[in-house]
Amino acid sequence: MNFGKFTVVSDRNVQALEETHEEMIFNLDHIVSVKPIKIPMADQVVDGFWIRTTNGKKYRAISAPDVIKDLLHN
Q1: How confident is the model over 27-62, as pLDDT tens digits?
Q2: Range of the structural domain that residue 24 is part of
């Protein structure tokens, strides 16, 4: 198994005044696609990633492992 740590923007509490960020560890072998996106935050727009996994779940991340970043920038 090949794991990597991501910082995911959580929308679990949609009434929260601030964005909630959670660190999650994904099995990189189960990631289907990663797309660079812009994520609007409270006071700025940050570069992030749209992650889709083999079970169909989708996540917005503001940080990803260097392995993923290197693949996107080469």
Answers
A1: 999 999 999 999 988 788 999 999 999 999 999 999
A2: 3-73
Question: Considering only CA atoms, which of 1, 45, 6 is closest in space to residue 24?
Answer: 6
CA Rg value for the chain: 12
Reduced to 3 states (helix: H, G, I; strand: E, B; else coil), residue 29 is helix
Residue for token digits 């990803």?
64
Counting the structural domains of the chain, the total is 1
3-state secondary structure of 7: strand
Residue type present at position 7: T
Question: Could you tell me the pTM of the whole model?
Answer: 0.80
C-beta of residue 61 within 8 angstroms of C-beta of residue 7: yes
